[in-house]
Each structure stands twice: as C-alpha cells, then as structure tokens.
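Newbie here. three chains, one complex. Structure please?
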Amino acid sequence: MTTILPRSFYQRDDVLAVSRELLGMVLCSKVDGVVTKGRIVETEAYRGPEDRACHAYNDRRTERTEVMFWDGGVAYVYLCYGIHSLFNVVTHCEGVPHAVLVRAIEPIEGVETMRKRRGREPLAGGPGTLTQALGITTAHNGVALDGDLIWIEEGQPVEKVTTGPRIGVDYAGEWAEMPWRFRVSTSC
DNA sequence: CCTACGATCTGCT
DNA sequence: GCAGATCGTAGGG
C-alpha cells in the first residue's frame, strides 16, 4: 500500500521544510505507458520573490515563470542550457513563487527503461539526467503532482541529511550562500 | 527584432 | 579540470 503525497503537502508555507522532507520520497512518472520510479536523494529550495537565485526573483512573472505562481502541487519544468529539462515542485499558495528543484534520484522501478532512455551512466544522478531517465520534458510543465503523469509517493524515512549552498547560482550574491541544498547523507 | 546567457552534461586533456 | 554543445527566455533597442 503506497501513499501519494496530497496537494496539502506542497501547499505549506515553508519551502525549506518541503525541500528537506522530499528526501526519501519516491518520484514517479508514467510516460509512453511505462512507470518509472526513483528515490529522491538531493533537492534545492528556491524562494522567490526575495531569493535572487530564483527565476521568479522580485516577482518576475513571465510565460516561463508563470507556473511558479500557481497553487502548490504542480510541476515546474524548464529548459536549461538549451539541452536539459529540469524538474521542480511548486510549493506554497497561489501568488507566491516558491519551488523545490529535484537534483538527484536513485532508480527503483523501470530501471531498464531508464537505461534505454539514458544510454549511459549515471542513470539519474543529476538534475538533467533524472528527467531524461523518467521521460520528463518541458511538455510536463504545469501538470498536477497528484495526477497519473507525475506523482510522488511516501518512502522510507531518511536517516541523516546534509545541507550546503546551492549549485550553479554564483550570480546570486549573498543568496548563493544560503544552505538551501539538501542531500541524503551517505556516511554512517 | 536581436543578442546574451543559463538551477548542466559530456568528452577530452 | 575545462571548454563546447545548444536553444528558449528575457530584456533591451
């Protein structure tokens, strides 16, 4: 018996808590009739409008960032470097652009399909590779996370979490130093 | 309309 | 360790 995270999980006002608590949860997709799943092991929180590293910094509301302003519980998928689709979970309520970037997962189900989609290692150890493994593209931008395309299931509790600054946001000044990156600790 | 650049990955050194 | 790939956005003219 598996439990799918309800929209209320995402709609809370603390994006840092959601980011941390997503560790250990299971990100699932159904694409081309195939279900693939992976355990979330790394996330980053983005807290617009005050967070300069966030696309929606200073309430910048455009066609791309629009989804971040929606009510929590939908997917924000955008293209990075013209190549990679990056998957985020939108949190908080309508009008507040908070989101959590999923940076890495550990394959659980549909591993052969992931191998086929990727064609190389690592299977899903980065934000751009995990979307490829799960078949997630920008076509999924705005889809509900309690639907049957993309959803997140409750997983095993996480033992230990390490935090640190977010990756690739050096341009964001003091905001780049915020310890808003969360990882499942590999050490004992 | 036009141009600069990015929440990355890969292959080669 | 580093540069090139590659194209949708955003912002300025």
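Moderator note: Strands of chain A lie at 26-31, 34-47, 75-80, 84-91, 98-109, 150-153, 161-164, 181-184. The first helix of chain A runs from residue 7 to 10. Thread marked as resolved.
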